[in-house]
Amino acid sequence: MTHSAPSFDRYIGIDYSGAETPCASLKGLRVYQSEGNTDAVEVPPPPSPRKYWTRKEIGAWLVEILKQDIPTLVGIDHGFSFPLRYFEVHHIPPDWPTFLEDFCAHWPTDEDNVYVDFVRDGIAGRGMDRMGNPRWRRITEERCRAKSVFHFDVQGTVAKSTHSGIPWLRYIRNSLGDRVYFWPFDGWEIPQGKSAIAEVYPSLIRHAYPRGEMTGDQHDAYAAACWLRDMDQSGQLERYLKPSLKDYERAVAGVEGWILGVA
Fold it and tell me: Which of 122, 175, 176, 234 has its CA 20 to 30 A from that of 66?
């Protein structure tokens, strides 16, 4: 069986953490990278007294990596947008760039000394004016039974990582412009030769990749990088880039975002 040549030359999986501040060194922040068809290896943080990555460092590193002329597919383990109900309740136009600006104006979780909980508790930002409801879920979350991006304080939640990670998506977008493609917000078909960033959900894929001696966070980042590589090189990525959606679902998902790997 023949399939098209791979679209990317490099694959990066990031397991994200919404703990503490953007400048905190966090054991839960892990980055793995595969080049070509090589096994994914862990990328250490920049040299410093800190042992682990910070969210701020990951944002800056991704900007530098994606400036290179190497088509790269990045998978990050947090939500990139919110359910349509959030847009409706808060009277935000159904447009992802508008959402990014509005969110960051209320949830300044990329500021050096801001915790997600500081915004939740009213100590920083204006999060009270932009709260969600854990019963609101995106179509992609319903389809794969993932928790809501508003489901805080429970095991396995992505709420904190989502609320701390979204401002860094804006930072990358503002830094690189059209050099990087945010899927599916920029469209469902990634142009050939372009680097892209997509949301991933390691729970869906980690079973396919032995954990060995890795921590859970390492394993999730490793599995994400390996899965992106394997899907692209086997010709299956195309199927996941064009999930089976009705027209209205596709329109909504273009605003809410989609988890790459949910068919």
Answer: 234
